[in-house]
Amino acid sequence: MRHRNDSGNFIYLPTNENYTSIYNKYKEHYCLEHGENENIISYSTFRRLWHELMPNLKFQSPASDLCETCEEFKAKMRTAKSDIDEFNIIKNQFEEHQEKADLERQHYNNNIEKSKHDLSIAHICYDWAQNVTVPYSPQQVGSIYFKTAYAVHLFGVCKTEGGENKQINFVIGENEFPKGVAKGANTTLNMVYQAIKTFAKDGKKNLNITCDNCIAQNKNNLSLFFWSWLCMLGWYDNITINFMVPGHTKFICDSFFGQIKIIYRNNKVNTIDDIEEIVNKSSKGNEGIRYNGGIGWKWFDFQKIFSNKNFINLPNITKYHHFRFSSLPQDLGKVYCSKKSGGDEICHKLLRDNNNFDKNEKLNVLDIMPISDERKKYLYQKIRQHVEDPHKDNYYL
User: Fold this and answer.
1) DUF7869 domain: which residues (predicted)?
2) Whole-prediction pTM value?
């Protein structure tokens, strides 16, 4: 596999290879060529010469969350090597896909740069992290790996502004999600709403947003209605939101999550409060906030206020990667969409003509979804024994 950067072409060897395995293969080949009695360079000399003579030959690092489209193109190119015409067609398609991903990556980077130097602009990113579990220990007993421990969810909203980055991380226990909506678009918007009230409003006139293409949580009509509503309220003059290409969505939230996971993996965890503490000490820019019975934030019913009687869905929403909203009177209740950064925009009216929508309508508060008796029993019988005293009674009796 080849990869180009500013210093030239790198050739990557498979992840299952290492210096030792390559050295052993070199010795085998050398002995076949020259006989076993011939002297051969030592392993240390082999590595030194490798770095001096072949600095562009490296080992591919293990990776997760790879782009499925990229991997499919690579597989097709490997099988099409015997047919140069087919290979070139696939190669061109692959390059078009990469150019599209690079364009959206550059748009994201430009938003960060603008937020550094233009104090009228606020830029936020948001995403869900992989769940963590309670209890947890770096010296974990083997049996708990086959059990379903108490799940704790992390959702991060990161602000990049004036060259400083700060992320609010919402810490949510498995029994703290709102009833009827669980982990979906309404839940996501609630935490974004809370974060904006906390640090992203601040009198800024323009808000730029970056997130991934998850339809269930981010790229959906409820989100479009929400951002349009904020312009109606006059919170911002302009709001833009861009969705990165699937498989190419690594961004600053992942960096903050990574800092949390490093501390989590090396500490004992007995309660959800321990998770909040880990978040707070993971880095200067990370801040944890717990739901904590509604003290941290409330779950509002955005789905009700943005019902179909007030708003109109955008057809083929998945085709678009960029959305723009404005507080100008002629633009209220409308969204401008484009398929790529700098692409042609189309206008779609979101707000219905009947003018019955009350932008200042009081938001209903949702109750949380209670944990089932069966789950309580499981936690008590299977998980409680792994919790250290005096925290065992935090688990359901």
Assistant:
1) 181-330
2) 0.80
Query: Would the pLDDT of 313 be above 70?
Result: yes
Q: Measure the CA–CA gap between 148 and 161, rounded to whole angstroms.
A: 40
Mapped to the 3 state alphabet, what secondary structure does 249-289 carry?
CCCHHHHHHHHHHHHHHCCCECCHHHHHHHHHHHCCCEEEE
CA 244, CA 241: separation in Å to the nearest integer? 10
CA distance 252 to 125: 8
H/E segment holding residue 48: helix 43-53
What the block records as the tokens of 192 is 């974004």
What b/e string do you get for 154-174 counting C-beta neighbours within 10 Å, with b at 16 or more? bbbbbbbbeeebbbbbbbbbb
Q: Which residues contact 244 (CB under 8 A, 6 or more apart)?
A: 101, 104, 105, 108, 210, 211, 212, 213, 251, 321
The DSSP result for 83-147, as a single string, is: -HHHHHHHHHHHHHHHHHHHHHHHHHHHHHHHHHH-TTEEEEEEEEPPPEEESB-TT--GGGGGS
Helix, coil or strand: residue 149: coil
Instruction: Count the Cβ atoms, other than its own, within 10 Å of residue 282.
Output: 22
Give the SS3 label for residue 176: coil
Reported as a single tens digit per residue, the pLDDT across 184-212 is 899 999 999 999 988 766 778 899 999 88
Element (H, E) at 44: helix 43-53
**How far apart are alpha carbons 170 and 80 in whole angstroms?**
47
Q: Indicate the helix (H) or strand (E) that contains 52.
A: helix 43-53
Question: Among 206-215, 269-278, 375-384, whose mean pLDDT is lowest?
Answer: 206-215
Q: How far apart are CA 353 and CA 312, in angstroms?
A: 10
For the residues of 186-209, what is the DSSP string, one character each?
HHHHHHHHHHIIIII-TT-SEEEE
